TrEMBL record, chain A:
Keywords: Amino-acid transport, Cell membrane, Membrane, Signal, Transmembrane, Transmembrane helix, Transport
Protein name: Urea ABC transporter permease subunit UrtB
Species annotation: Bradyrhizobium campsiandrae
Matches recorded under SUPFAM superfamilies: ARM repeat
Main location: membrane
Record's bilayer topology term: Multi-pass membrane protein
From TrEMBL, chain B:
Superkingdom to which the source organism belongs: Bacteria
Membrane protein topology class: Multi-pass membrane protein
InterPro entries (UniProt xref): ABC_transp_permease, ABC_transptr_urea_perm_UrtC, LivM-like
Organism: Bradyrhizobium campsiandrae
Protein name: Urea ABC transporter permease subunit UrtC
Segments passing through the bilayer: 14-35, 47-70, 76-94, 130-153, 160-178, 208-229, 256-277, 297-321, 333-354
Cited Pfam families: BPD_transp_2
Record's subcellular location: Cell membrane
Record keywords: Cell membrane, Membrane, Transmembrane, Transmembrane helix
PANTHER family: HIGH-AFFINITY BRANCHED-CHAIN AMINO ACID TRANSPORT SYSTEM PERMEASE, SLR1201 PROTEIN
Length: 536, 389
């Protein structure tokens, strides 16, 4: 902070000084080099880049980066060079003095591809020792890509001073890249370089190694070829892992959306086309919770989802029970009518939300612990997807435990298996119906909280999940939660493995067609209930 | 179709319905064309096109009623057959544009020129001939329904499972037709039609003729459905609807019956779509949206499933209401009304308007016939009660 301030102060004093004593006597090697930009000659420009970059002048970085962006203006008549800032203000490149406007005769300094690489390399070495860690890392990466020989020295000096491990690795890789292409590097150095690049093991490393050409010693070519082979096979493994991860992530979303349906459709046999709208209500509950927190208690923002989960369960569950009591209970045993009535209900709920919250997407934020990502080998894993996967599995486990070990779970299973027998054993079946439907809807509401983190919160949110959810339940087998779990992850992973081959939309179509064909073979899904209950 | 079958299949309600449709089919085009514009009795051209649309919907409703009302197959994907018929007709109309398109390519439709197609995809071969397009209007939906039904019915996918996979089918088609490289115009669909059989699509005369044709198609579809449901085949269908396993055990090949009626219904939906496209002037993938198919089912439910007149009437009533409400200040509330319609009809009016009316009429007739039987028996000792109808 202090050094930053003093630097600013210095530059301020310096510019005052310059304004006061703008004398020709100031011309030194830096100023001469800057003036070369105005010659409109590629070799002069290259020389100028080298001199400016190694001058240690404060203006070196703004000049070179302006050159890269085409913001470095040179006037061929007066041999003056200007830097136009991204904010539109201009300074004299040689002195750093602010100028009112760049003369009309000035034009941007031209670059060709060779010069562009020197610019990249110069910028790279300029920032290699920046105090900012991110900038250093980026600089090292850009040197790695440009592999400019002139950058070797700055890289080596930066490497000697570097303390951060990841920057050190990046610098080492940058050095290796330069050495590999340096004609006078020894064979040992080159072999070491190949090993370092092989250890990096990503697409860039592959591209670099495939580039080395034929003028290398035979041992290096051989080492590079074997490195390419091993990188390719490890990349193939990583891309499989990545597809599997995406598949798991999609599967968890599908499972979350379908798990409530597995209860209402799978366990109760009620076709609830308004299930997607329960998900939507959960997402809007999250939105409302976050709005209240934003306006009243901003400090609680990170806990907004924890507050939203039980609330969404209660809101969606209550609406579900209301629906069951007022509509669905009159339609038991008439599945096709239930389907139509709940579809109508979904239209009403969507339109109600549209009237209340407007038809556009609403902003739902990610809490800090859900944003960001981390690298695992060659793949990037975002925290929100990871949390959703964990959350889904937790919800699944709780639900399973509830059905298995709680009293109400026992009653639910009893009513599902044999309604009349359950009734004669003293179970209030209609109460169980309402509670079961409420449970399924409540879980849909919880799903909405999670989906609000990765999808647009709009009145159409639910509709996009309803067909997929039904597919999951039908595929997994009705009346079996494990079937839903397996179904969701199978469909998710299959979808993500088909996507790179067939494209996103065709992959989805292929999945739908496969399910339709699969139902031919196993009309009751993967894990079908056996026995007489099936025919009912 | 023997005259005997025809008369047997016509009760009074059906006769009134056919007479009204025929009268509309003749009078509306005549009034549109012959009376001076602005005259009190003249039907404006936009209304002719609008009602033409309703008539097409009525044919679709008949197709759905044939399988849902009489065979218990609830298809939530009939919009797909409708749209496929529409696309077949749309492709013919696209090829009729010829050099009058924006790019003036004699063979390729505009969107293909735009997407850098070098030659016509094979799927478009033959669509420059009307007879071929007309054949495809029947064949494409029919073939899809046949394959789909063959797979589904053979493995005894019934009830809601069938509904859900038909919905998945139309959803898959929706996604496919949205793709630009699928070769059917992608997102924008097919539009900007010029000629049909050499007549300008926009001309009043053509519109009136299309309306009359739609009415004719509605009458024909109605007669076909009526013949099917009142024949022995129809009785078997109803038996399947009410007790599928029992019909199978009685020796009927349930899946063959279902397959036949499903395919027939898909062909009818295709014809409806083909008539719909030149009248509205566009066909795009949103016609495949699952919501459309479900909406078509509710027309049938409102009118009365299992009554053919009801299905057609339901389509017209609901769509008239839709036009009426969505064009006024009540537009934001239309979805509430449609949703409430779904709920209320299934809860309170499960037989639909016509079904409820029929039940009420039968009841009062029964009372009356019971009375006459009693009095007749008192007079000359006839004990056999008269059959209703």
């Amino acid at each position: 902070m202090l050094s930053n301030l003093s630097a600013r102060l210095c530059s301020f004093v310096l510019s005052l000084f310059l304004i006061a004593f703008a004398l020709p006597a100031f011309a030194g090697p830096f100023e001469d080099a800057v003036a070369k930009f105005a010659n409109d000659d590629y070799s002069d420009t290259e020389e100028a880049i080298g001199t400016v970059a190694s001058s240690g002048n404060k203006l070196a970085f703004p000049i070179i980066s302006a050159l890269q962006d085409g913001r470095l203006m040179a006037d061929p008549d007066s041999k003056k060079v200007y830097v136009t800032g991204t904010d539109g203000k201009s300074i004299d490149a040689a002195t750093g003095e602010a100028v009112a406007s760049v003369p009309d005769s000035a034009s941007a300094v031209r670059l060709n591809n060779r010069l562009r690489r020197s610019v990249d390399a110069a910028l790279g070495s300029l920032t290699l020792q920046s105090p900012d860690l991110g900038a250093r890392l980026q600089a090292a990466q850009s040197v790695f890509k440009s592999r400019e020989e002139t950058a070797l020295e700055p890289v080596e000096s930066a490497l000697a001073k570097e303390t951060n491990k990841s920057v050190k690795t990046a610098l080492g890789e940058a050095r290796a890249a330069i050495l590999l292409f340096k004609s006078d590097a020894t064979e040992v150095q080159k072999l070491e370089a190949v090993a370092t690049i092989k250890a990096r093991g990503d697409q860039d490393a592959l591209a670099l190694l495939s580039d080395i050409g034929t003028d290398q010693p035979a041992s290096v070519t051989k080492a590079a070829a074997s490195a390419i082979g091993s990188i390719q096979s490890s990349l193939a493994v990583w891309s499989t892992v990545q597809n599997a991860w995406y598949g798991l992530s999609l599967g968890s979303v599908l499972l979350l959306a379908a798990i409530g349906l597995a209860i209402t459709f799978g366990v109760m046999g009620v076709i609830n086309m308004a299930h997607g709208e329960m998900v939507m209500i959960g997402a809007y509950t999250t939105f409302v919770v976050q709005e209240v927190i934003r306006t009243r208690y901003p400090a609680l923002f990170d806990y907004s989802l924890l507050i939203a989960v039980p609330l969404a369960f209660l809101v969606a569950g209550a609406i579900g029970m209301l629906i069951e009591r007022s509509i669905i209970r009159f339609l038991y045993g008439r599945p096709l009518e239930t389907l139509l009535a709940t579809w109508g209900l979904s239209l009403v709920l969507q339109q109600a939300v549209r009237t209340m919250f407007g038809p556009t997407n609403r902003e739902v934020g990610n809490p800090s612990w859900m944003s960001g990502a981390f690298e695992l080998g060659q793949i990037t894993i975002t925290y929100n997807r990871l949390w959703i996967l964990c959350f889904t599995l937790a919800v699944f486990a709780i639900l399973l435990a509830m059905l298995r070990y709680s009293a109400i779970g026992l009653e639910m299973r009893a009513v599902t298996q044999n309604r009349r027998m359950a009734a004669s054993m003293g179970i209030a079946t209609s109460r169980v119906d309402a509670l079961t439907f409420g449970l399924g809807s409540g879980i849909a509401g919880i799903a909405g909280v999670a989906l609000s983190q990765i999808d647009n919160v709009s009145p159409n949110l639910g509709q996009s999940y309803i067909i997929d959810s039904f597919m999951v339940v039908v595929f997994g087998g009705v009346g079996n939660l494990w079937g839903t779990l397996v179904g969701a992850f199978t469909l998710g992973i299959a979808n993500k493995f088909l996507e790179p081959v067939a494209g996103a939309v065709l992959g989805k179509i292929a999945i739908l067609v496969l399910i339709i064909l699969f139902i031919q073979k196993r009309p009751r899904g993967l894990f079908a209930l056996k026995g007489r209950a099936v025919e009912a | 179709m023997t005259p005997h079958m025809l008369t047997r299949s016509l009760d009074r309600g059906a006769a009134i319905f056919l007479a009204v449709v025929a009268a509309c089919g003749i009078l509306i085009p005549l009034s549109n064309l012959l009376l001076p514009a602005g005259s009190f009795l003249q039907v404006p051209t936009y209304l002719v096109a609008l009602w033409g649309k309703y008539v097409c919907y009525a044919i679709l409703a008949l197709a759905i009623d044939l399988i849902w009302g009489y065979c218990g197959i609830l298809s939530l994907g009939h919009g797909a057959f409708f749209a496929l018929g529409g696309y077949a007709m749309g492709m013919y109309l696209m090829r009729q544009i010829g050099t009058r398109g924006v790019y003036g390519n004699p063979i390729l439709p505009d969107f293909m020129v735009f997407l850098n197609y070098s030659k016509l995809p094979w799927t478009w071969y033959g669509f420059d001939m009307f007879w071929f397009a007309a054949l495809m209007v029947l064949l494409v939906p029919g073939l899809l329904a046949f394959c789909f039904g063959w797979l589904a019915f053979r493995s005894r996918v019934t009830g809601v499972y069938l509904s859900i996979i038909t919905q998945a089918m139309t959803y898959a088609l929706l996604l496919a037709f949205f793709r630009n490289d699928f070769g059917f115009g992608g997102n924008n669909g097919l539009t900007d039609f010029k000629d049909i059989l050499g007549f300008n699509v926009q001309a009043e005369g053509t519109r009136a003729a299309l309306f009359a044709l739609s009415c004719l198609a509605l009458i024909a579809s109605f007669l076909i459905c009526r013949t099917v449901v009142s024949s022995k085949l129809g009785k078997v269908l109803i038996a399947i609807r009410d007790a599928e396993s029992r019909s199978r055990f009685l020796g009927y090949r349930v899946e063959s019956y279902k397959l036949f009626v499903f395919t027939l219904s898909a062909c009818m939906a295709g014809v409806a779509g083909a008539l719909y496209v030149p009248q509205v002037g566009i066909i795009n993938p949103s016609e495949f949206a699952p919501g459309n198919s479900i909406e078509a089912v509710i027309w049938v439910a409102v009118g009365g499933r299992g009554t053919l007149v009801g299905a057609a009437l339901g389509a017209i009533v609901v769509n008239y209401a839709k036009t009426f409400f969505t064009s006024g200040v009540l537009a934001p509330y239309w979805l509430f009304m449609l949703g409430a319609l779904f709920i209320l009809v299934t809860l309170l009016l499960p037989k639909g308007i016509v079904g409820t009316f029929n039940a009420w009429r039968d009841q009062s007739k029964e009372k009356r016939s019971a009375l006459t039987t009693v009095s007749a028996a008192a007079e000359d000792g006839v004990t056999e009660p008269k059959m209703a109808e």
